[in-house]
């Protein structure tokens, strides 16, 4: 990457698009500090900043609480739907607590899982006995809905959807994304990576990555969804049939609740 600059404001939903291998998922890996980059506390210097704090200065445990990533392929543990949706949260309060406190905690976890599963259209996976059974033989779409429900239950300041709905049919995807975005805190930021036009219609801003001169990937275009389907050079150069894409997602090319802390994300410079 070279000269890559992009910003995500509190409450903003942005998409990152580009051809395969251009570096979309690499940006997420940098954001999660799976890759490291030089960092400075001076926000005018090249780096990645979350609420003005250099990513490298944020303890990893805190960073994992702030940013929730839903990948294309979700890893499910051996256990019930509730175990998977509440993954990372203990089944009971640690330490010594009264039995009634433990019961209240368990009831709250179950309530949160049911609410998250409703948002992700995965209610049928929980059933009437939330801690019974084991998730087996799920389709790709069902696994993705469990992953989205897990993200809703987990919370965070920034939600990243990395091809998170690629296995859903368009009607289910539309329902899930509408419910998901309605459930978010107004200041929660969303980053979407997707090749599907039906997914991009839900965002506020689209960043297009490319490497036109071989020096490294950077943002070459940005704009709204309406601009993207009508004017994006990326779609034209890729030979995409915009009419088919638009008709498939039911769009018009002419015009087209957990609490979270807010986040402003900035990435700039030579990463």
TrEMBL record:
InterPro entries: AAA+_ATPase, ABC_transporter-like_ATP-bd, ABC_transporter-like_CS, P-loop_NTPase, Type_1_exporter. It holds the Pfam family ABC_tran. Coiled coil: none annotated. Keywords: ATP-binding, Cell membrane, Membrane, Nucleotide-binding, Transmembrane, Transmembrane helix, Transport. It is a multi-pass membrane protein. Residues 1-232 form the ABC transporter domain. The keyword Nucleotide-binding applies. The keyword Hydrolase does not apply. One of its GO terms (cellular component) is plasma membrane. It is found in: Cell membrane. One of its GO terms (molecular function) is ATPase-coupled transmembrane transporter activity. This is Transporter.
